[in-house]
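New here. Your pick:
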Amino acid sequence: MSDNRSGGGAPTVLRMVLGKRLRQLREQAGVSYEDAARVIEVTPLTVRRIEKAEVGLRIPYVRELLHTYGVPAAETDDFLSMAREANKPGWWYKYRDVLPDWFSAYVSLESEATVIRLYEPHYVPGLLQTHEYAAALMHVGFPNESKEDIDRRVALRLKRQDLLAKPDSPAIWAVLDETVLRRPVGGAEVMRAQIDRLIEVLDLPKVRIQIMRFDAGAHPGAFGPFHYFRFGFSELPDVVYTENLSGAVYVDQPDDVVAYLEVLDRMSVQAEPVAKTRAILGELRKEL
């Protein structure tokens, strides 16, 4: 997954999981790419793409592959049911006109993660933004877009926040640079409301926010924002997301992911303790 995804349909997390399961089943059965390809009359490349979730899970193909791998009928039926579910577009599909493919993958990961840790040096994370704050950012980021498209981008961002109200919502641990809270996005009134929102989400049992003060000095995350995801599927590795102007990089190589996780751990020690966050936010609000 360690690539820049700037084109092609973004897979759902379930499709990624099933692709990895198909690879595991093939390897356990001792079947090569070439032999699997002959069974379903495709190229070995197509089998690879199925396992990497780069294409949809065609049910006849999956059924034949499972039979070839010696999977019992009852397990095959369960797998095919999950494959049909995995082929359904995510809830975000209706926003595809304003959602680039490289970010569709992010929304899928976010929706299925059990843990989300992140560092943000510039702006409040999308999951915690108010409507007005998000709209102000969208107007700056997409100055030539119509009001309708801006409204749809904001609606998508706010829809993502439904995640916070789910019974199985992920644990969210954010380290925010002090710059995030001092940058006057949308003006003083918008910033006051945004800080109020951050204070409000501190009451959620699975949300932790730390502030990296200016006087903390240099820190290991100064190279830019990044988000770390952990999942409840053994087949899916931890993933780190970083973004650039025209796309994103999804990192899942263990050594690379561990390096990011170590940075987050070091930053959480260097930042102000979670217990102080509410007071810091209150102080900053008074300055507006």
